[in-house]
Amino acid sequence: MRINKLILFAFLALFLAQFKAEAQQKITVYTVGDSTVKNGKGDGTGGLWGWGDYIGQFLDSNKITVENHALGGTSSRSYQNLGLWDAVYKKLKKGDYVLIQWGHNDDGPLNDTIRARGTIKGISDKTEEIDNLITKKHETVHTYGWYIRKVVKEAKEKGAIPIVMSPIPRNTWKDGKLPRNNTSYGLWAKQIADQEQVTFIDLNDRMASKLEQFGEAKVTGTYFYKKDHTHPSAKGAVMAATSIIEGLKVSKSPLKNYILENPVIKLPRKINVFLIGDSTMADNKNENAVGWGVMVPRYFDTTRVNIVNKARGGRSTRTFDFEGLWDKAKKEIQPNDFVILQFGHNDAGKIDGEKFRGSINGIGDETQVVNRADSLTETVHTYGWYLKKFIRETKEKGATPIVMSLTPRNEWPNGKVEQRDQTYVKWAQEAAAAEKTDYINLSQKVAQKYEALGQEKVKEFYPKDHTHTGRAGANAVAETAAEELRNLKGSKIRDLVLTKKEVDDLPPVQLNK
C-alpha cells in the first residue's frame, strides 16, 4: 500500500512539473499600436474595435497567449514617451512576438497643447528639438521610422520576434477605390522591416483590396460606420485580423505555425432592446393602429442592436404579468440587454369585471382579491407594484430597465394636449425612482411636439381613435423616444441610438405603407 502511494505521489509530481513546464513555455504575442489595434478598453464601445481584439481567435490558444497593449490616440512617439513600450519590453521573453502598427496619429503636430504626438516624416535620423508644451520638458523628436526601428531592435534584443504592419486603410473612397499609404507610413514601415530583416505585412493594401471587392455602399455600415472612417466595426476588425493572418501564412515568420486551420471567430452578440408595453408600442398588424415600437428600429444602430418588440395590444401591467407575457419575455433577456417598460392606457380599466385588466392606483403594496370569470382567484396589485416587479426582475437578469410614461392621447382640453401627470405619468416616475431606474417622460416630450405642430396636423396622426397612431404618428413618437434615449445621461443605451445627423442621412421613412 505504501509503495502504491509513493508511485501515485511521484506520478502526480511528474504531471504537475510537466504542466508547469508547458505553461512556462507558452508563447506570448504582444500587440502594440493605436486605436485601430485596440479601441478604447477593447470592449466595443461605440461599436468600434481593433484587430488586436480578434487576432487571438486565429491562433492556437493552447500554445499562444495574446496580450493587446495598444492604446488609442498614440503615435509611435507618444506610445514610447508614455512608457507603454517599456512596460511591454520588460515582459518580453525569448520566442515571444511583437505585432507593431502605428501611423494614423503620427501625422499630427510635433508640438502643441492638445496631443504633441506627431513624428518627423520618413525613416532618417533627422531630429527636431522642442520644449514640449504638454509635458513642459525638452524633447528630441525623431522620425516615424526611427521610433519603429527602436521597438524592433529592442524586441530583438530580448529574443522576441517583431512583425511590422502598415496602418489599416481609412474608409475614405475616391472613384471606387480606397487610398493606400504605400508612399508614406506604409512605405516607411516596410523600409524599416526590410532593413532590420523582420517580417512585414502590408495590412493596408491587403485590407483595402478586400474592401474594394464589396464597394463603398456595402462596406460603410458593415465594416466601418458612417460616423467614423478610421476605426472599424467588429467585422472590420476581423477582416483586418484575417488580412494579417493571410500575410503571415505566406511569410517566413514562425508565427504561422500557430495559426489554426479552421478558426471559429466569435463576434460580439447584438444587444437586445426589449419593448414591453401595450398597443401604443406594439406591432398590431393594423395600419390605423401602429405602435411606435414598429418605427423605432430606424433610430437605432441595428448593426449592433436587435429591437425585440414584446408589447401586446390591450394589456395593462397587470394582464401582461398575469397572462405570462412577462415571464416569456424575461426568459429571453440576457446580461447587458435593455428593457423599455411603458404601460398605463389599459391600467385604468375595471379591476373586477369585463377584461379584468385594471390595476390599483398608485405604487404602493395595496392588494385586492378578485374572483375572475374563469373561476380563478387573482390578487391584484398597484400599477407601480407591477412596474417595480418588472424593473427588479430585469436587473436580476443583468439587463438595464428604462421606464417611459405612456403616450399622450389626441385630446386637447383647454387647447393643450392631455397629460395624465397626476396619475400614470406620475406613478411611472415614482416607481422608477423607487427602484433607482432611468425614467423618460415621453408623454410630456411628445405633447410638446404636438403642440408645436398644432391640433389639425396632429389629427392626421390618429386615423382610428384618440389613442392609436398611424405610421406617421408612430414615427413621431418613435423619433421622440429615440431622442430622449440618446440624451439619457449615464446610460449605455445612448451609444446604440443614432445621432440626428445619422438619422438625417438615412433615406426618407415610408409613412404610407
From TrEMBL:
- Supply the InterPro entries for this chain: GDSL, RhgT-like, SGNH_hydro, SGNH_hydro_sf
Q: Which domain of life is it from?
A: Bacteria
Which residue ranges traverse the bilayer?
none
Where does the SGNH hydrolase-type esterase domain lie? 275-473
GO terms (molecular function) for this protein are: hydrolase activity, acting on ester bonds
Q: Which family does it belong to?
A: Belongs to the 'GDSL' lipolytic enzyme family.
Where, if anywhere, are coiled coils annotated? none
Q: What is this protein called?
A: Lysophospholipase L1
Keywords per UniProt: Hydrolase, Signal
Q: Name one Pfam family in it.
A: Lipase_GDSL_2
Alphabetized SUPFAM superfamilies for the sequence: SGNH hydrolase
Q: Which residues form the signal peptide?
A: 1-23
Lineage runs: Bacteria, Pseudomonadati, Bacteroidota, Flavobacteriia, Flavobacteriales
